């Protein structure tokens, strides 16, 4: 679940900003020499589309960053976008993936088999994926939800972890921080930015003041940072540290996975930091009013982009996970403590 946070920055390319305001996908846009932003549809999702970045090497080859959702419609859109650049889908030789969510990684396995391209994903996100495609431990998901006061949806097909991870396969190639990829005369450097996922990676286009930010930094919304068991002891702390890494790249143009490209990278980092500071304070206020709440009870008392009654079950799980990430940050800061009451984790202010 994402949160707008009340602040945003303007679109660098009017065609992208205007399309977003009309709730439409923009046309394929050349955002730098031989780099195109191609909107790939995300069926049935509020995010509408993900940008797949097509980077030509100048010698007939192409690298794709985040190929997109695995659907017939998305595959057709990617093929049409590649054709718009004067290339064929068979020219794609490398697939770089920012993180293991289906709107980014979903198509990668099938596209690699079609084109022979190599797929790269950070090792920390590879570990999130099942060893066998389609396999998922719903018992563990049920246990995690019950521990935090939220019952499992009776239809496992709607479970958030199932949607996110079960229908993807582990890539055979791993990304690591500082790794470089040559795309023609360009150098793309991997910048590990954990938070949204443990293995989220941005790609810095060296010497051009460009950074492909994935979901780590978006112009209008703050990406979900989740307190899942495999997210580590302080995922929000890692996310905020990663924002600092991005801020050091300013001045630079951010090429995000959603919404639109923007130039105010440093200002946007500051806005997202303010949002999380406010959320941490809001949680402390709620716990001061009602100590001993579980994370689900607390989630229902927080401010979201819509009333809790209008939030779908899968998104309530995302809200729960985001609330837990903030609680874990407050524990790390020594402001909140947790204990178990009747097999459910509950939280209060430490003082």
TrEMBL record:
The name under which this protein is listed is: Metallo-beta-lactamase domain-containing protein
Q: Which domain of life is it from?
A: Bacteria
Q: Which SMART domains match?
A: Lactamase_B
InterPro entries cross-referenced by the UniProt entry: Metallo-B-lactamas (IPR001279), RibonucZ/Hydroxyglut_hydro (IPR036866), Sec-metab_biosynth-thioest (IPR050662), WH-like_DNA-bd_sf (IPR036388)
**Which Pfam family is one of this chain's hits?**
Lactamase_B
Every Metallo-beta-lactamase domain range: 49-258
């Amino acid at each position: 679940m994402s949160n707008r946070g009340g602040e945003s920055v303007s679109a660098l390319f009017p065609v992208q900003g205007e399309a977003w305001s009309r709730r439409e996908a923009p046309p394929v846009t050349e955002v730098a020499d031989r780099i195109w932003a191609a909107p790939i549809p995300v069926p049935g999702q509020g995010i509408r589309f993900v940008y797949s970045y097509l980077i030509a090497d100048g010698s007939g080859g192409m690298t794709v960053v985040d190929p997109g959702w695995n659907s017939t419609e998305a595959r057709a859109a990617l093929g049409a976008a590649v054709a718009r650049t004067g290339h064929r889908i068979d020219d794609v030789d490398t697939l770089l993936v920012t993180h293991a969510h289906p709107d980014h990684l979903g198509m990668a396995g099938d596209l690699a088999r079609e084109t022979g391209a190599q797929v790269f994903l950070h090792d920390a996100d590879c570990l999130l994926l099942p060893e066998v495609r389609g396999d998922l431990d719903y018992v563990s998901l049920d246990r995690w939800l019950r521990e935090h006061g939220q019952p499992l949806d009776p239809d496992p097909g709607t479970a958030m972890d199932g949607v996110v991870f079960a229908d993807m396969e582990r890539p055979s190639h791993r990304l690591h921080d500082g790794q470089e990829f040559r795309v023609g005369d360009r150098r793309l450097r991997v910048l590990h930015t954990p938070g949204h996922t443990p293995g989220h990676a941005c790609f810095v286009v060296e010497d051009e003041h460009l950074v492909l930010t994935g979901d780590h930094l978006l112009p209008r919304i703050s990406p979900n940072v989740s307190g899942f068991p495999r997210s580590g002891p302080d995922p929000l702390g890692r996310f905020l540290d990663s924002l600092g890494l991005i801020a050091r790249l300013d001045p630079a143009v951010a090429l995000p996975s959603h919404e639109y490209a923007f130039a105010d990278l440093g200002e946007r980092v500051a806005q997202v930091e303010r949002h999380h500071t406010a959320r941490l304070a809001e949680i402390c206020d709620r716990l001061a009013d009602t100590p001993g709440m579980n994370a689900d009870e607390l989630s229902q008392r927080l401010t979201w982009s819509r009333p809790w009654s209008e939030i779908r079950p899968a998104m309530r799980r995302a809200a729960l996970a985001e609330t837990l990430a903030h609680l874990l940050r407050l524990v790390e800061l020594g402001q909140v403590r947790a204990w178990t009451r009747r097999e459910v984790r509950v939280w209060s202010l430490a003082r």
